[in-house]
Structures are given as C-alpha cells and as structure tokens.
Write a structure and sequence with these properties.
Layout: H1 2-14, H2 16-56, E1 59-63, E2 76-77, H3 80-86, E3 93-107, E4 112-120, H4 122-128, E5 135-138, E6 148-151, H5 152-158, E7 165-171, E8 177-188, H6 193-196, E9 199-203, H7 204-210, E10 216-217, E11 219-224, H8 230-240, E12 246-250, H9 251-254, H10 256-294, H11 296-304, H12 309-344, E13 347-348, H13 351-359, E14 365-366, H14 372-389, H15 391-399, H16 402-406
Helix pairs in contact: 1-12, 2-10, 2-12, 2-14, 10-14, 12-14, 12-15
Length: 408
C-alpha cells in the first residue's frame, strides 16, 4: 500500500496543470459553500439570540394552563417549594427573571388606552434585557419604586411626560378589582414596534400588589450558564418539576412559528447549495474525464507490463483522495480568515433595510457564524462528491481493453 501511495503522489505531479485544475475546483467549491453556509447561519443565530434575549429567554417555567390560556388566574405561585425545586440546578443556571404581566387600561386626563403591563425585577431585568440603554427620558426603575416606565410610543399617544400620574384599571387574580395611581418615572424606547406602542414596565412587587397576586408570576425565565446546555437542563428540570402544576418550555417551543418560517428560508438556501454541489460534481467529473482520456494509453501500458487492475484502480482512487484532501484543506483554510473577519466585523447594512431591522430590535448587520458545523458539513459533502466521482476511474480501469487502448 505504501508503494501505491508513493506512485499515486508522483502521478499527481507529473502533470501539474491537470492536478492544479482539479484541486482548484474542489478548493473554490469548499470556499463558496463554507462562506454561504456561514453567512446564513450567522444571520439566523443573531436573530434567534436577539429574540431570546429580548423576549422569551432560553427556558420558561409557567403554570400548566398559562400557555394555552394566558391569564393572571393561571399564574404560578413562586413560593419556597418552587424555589427549592430549582435549587438542584443552580450550578447550571446563570440567573432567573421573574415576571407577571397582564392587560390594563391606562388613562390620564385626556386619553385612555389598553396596554401590556409587565411587572419585573429591575435588577435581574438588567442582566436579561437592559432597558437602561434605551431610556429616552427620566430614570430607570428600582425594586422599591411605586412608579412605572412607559414605552415611548405609548407616551406619545397619551401625551405623557416624566412626573405625570396615570390611572390603571384592570382585573386582578381570581376576579379581584385592580386599580391604582402610578407616576411616570421614565420613558423607554422598546425596539419591537408593537411593544413600543403599548407597554408599561413596573417593579415586580408593585405589579403583584396591583393585580392582587402576591408571590405569583405568569412566567419565570431561566437563563442557563451555557445556552448550548439548554436542552439538557430542560430535561433535568422537567424531572424535578411537578408536571401537574408546571410547564417547562424551551426557546424552540416558544419560537416555534419563527423557526418554521426560518426553515423555509433554509430550504431555499439548500436549493442554492444543491445547485452549487451539482456544478462542483460536474466540474470535478469533467476534469477527471479529461485526465482519464489523456492517460488511457499510459494506463494500458502499465497493465500490459504486469500491474494488476485492482492495484491500478487503488492508485487512481488514492490520486482522487489526495487531490480532494488538498482542495478541501486549502478551501477550509482560505475560508477561515474570511469567516473570522466577518464574524468580528459584520457587514453593515444601510438604507431602508437597515431601518427595518432597527425598528424590529435587530442590529443592522449581517454577521458570519464561526460554528464548526459550517466547516465540517461542507468539507464532508464536497469530499463525498469527489470520492463518488472517483468511481469513474475505477470503472475505466476495469473496463479498459488493453490492446486497443495501447494503440491510441
């Protein structure tokens, strides 16, 4: 086998131009496939990361009925029993984000509007979704405050300013009346347009008092130390939580509709990659076909002097493997600095597209993903294509008529 490998290596460089053309076809195939996959995966990773951080979290604990019937009445009791149930997983949990939310009417002297009231812990919310960065007037909330932050869009509708007192009317836990007067401590811009038009943020204790729901939450967001461990943590926590009372949802379940839409876009990109793979396959096949035509007489002479066809077929396969490895390694090495650069220096968008992304809370950039799967998957596919093409030289060797081929 060692002798066959040496022979195959020497054969490659007897015709450098032919070898370079074959290696180059594999090289550019791997380079384009990795960059395309990394670009798409990077965009999706950014969108998912933003949606998880600004909305759902990686894990969410709710009352078993709340997901189907989102109501204060289906809130969960955040008592010592639940906290004790979560303690065994403390090492895997980075922090918790408790929330209680519900619909309320908010009014001043002139206008009344419906709004989403979110009661949150100001300290843990800073880790999860730092609203301090988007305060446009006034100050951020503190845990003991009896005041609110209102979204900038709602402030425009109500013509409200910092220091104004707003009237809140809603329905609390188990039909209790919920009413109160709360001053506006600050105005915050929420990046999601729909939420910016009708959102009020209130300290958790004040919101629980308002809804007459002491120690109750509509959701408890769980942020793991390592997002990659979300599924493992979810499976472990599911065993410790009473399924009769609690429901544990992962970000994939919470963003199911978005992931379905993303799957369609992924399928469209796969079509592009399949077309690219077909071009790659025919390109490599054309090169190999030309190589075999040029070497027909040479191969016939080698067989005629006593070399077994099986050995010659192995030499041809080794040649293809070596050329594939050279192209794949060179393509992956060339793609790495490109992907690395655009991962740390994303493509900046401008114009209307940039404004749309900003409005929906996304940074107007198109980053590349550094995930190892981008490299491994494309290297694997292109390698398989090249090895499949190597079937032709094997077929040619076994079907060759030595006498006729020697006269060419």
């Amino acid at each position: 086998m060692k002798m066959l490998m040496i022979l195959a290596w020497r054969n490659l460089w007897r015709n450098k131009r032919r070898t370079i053309i074959t290696v180059a076809s594999v090289f550019f195939a791997v380079l384009l496939a990795i960059c395309s996959e990394s670009f798409q995966r990077g965009s999706y990773e950014m969108m998912i990361d933003n949606m998880v951080k600004y909305s759902t979290g990686y894990l969410k604990v709710q009352d078993v009925m709340y997901h189907d019937e989102p109501s204060i009445d289906n809130s969960l009791l955040y008592d010592d029993a639940l906290q004790s149930a979560l303690k065994p997983y403390a090492e895997s949990i980075d922090y918790l984000v408790p929330r209680i939310q519900g619909f309320t009417l908010v009014a001043n002297d002139e206008t009344t509007r419906g709004a989403l009231l979110i009661g949150m812990n100001p300290d843990s919310e800073v880790q999860f979704n730092d609203f301090r960065e988007n305060i446009v007037a006034g100050d951020y909330l503190e845990s003991g405050d009896q005041s609110v932050l209102i979204s900038s869009g709602l402030a425009r509708v109500l013509n409200a300013e910092v220091g104004d007192t707003l009237v809140f009317i809603s329905q609390g836990f188990q039909g209790a009346s919920a009413a109160g007067l709360f001053p506006v401590k600050g105005i915050v811009r929420i990046r999601v347009p729909e939420m910016d038009r009708a959102t009020i943020l209130m300290p958790l204790a004040a919101a629980q008092w308002f809804f007459q729901a002491d120690e109750r939450l509509t959701s408890l967001i769980v942020m793991p130390n390592n997002p990659a461990d979300t599924e493992r943590l979810a499976n472990a926590m599911a065993k410790g939580l009473d399924a009769e009372w609690f429901r544990l949802l992962t970000w994939k379940e919470l963003l199911a509709d978005f992931l379905k839409l993303m799957a369609f876009d992924v399928a469209a990109n796969k079509v592009f990659l399949y077309i690219l793979y077909m071009i790659i396959a025919f390109g490599i096949y054309g090169t190999v076909l030309t190589m075999m035509v040029e070497r027909t007489k040479e191969l016939a002479m080698i067989i005629s002097v006593g070399m077994k066809r099986s050995q010659l077929a192995v030499v041809c396969v080794i040649e293809m493997v070596l050329m594939t490895l050279l192209g794949v390694i060179a393509g992956a090495l060339a793609a790495f600095p490109v992907v690395y650069y655009f991962h740390h220096n994303p493509i900046q968008l401008s114009g209307e597209l940039a404004n749309v992304m900003i409005d929906y809370g996304f940074e107007p950039v198109m980053p590349f993903s550094m995930s190892a799967i981008n490299f491994l998957s494309q290297v694997y596919v292109v390698s398989v294509i090249s090895l499949l093409v190597s079937i032709y030289p094997v077929y040619k060797v076994y079907s060759m008529k030595v006498v006729e081929s020697s006269k060419l």
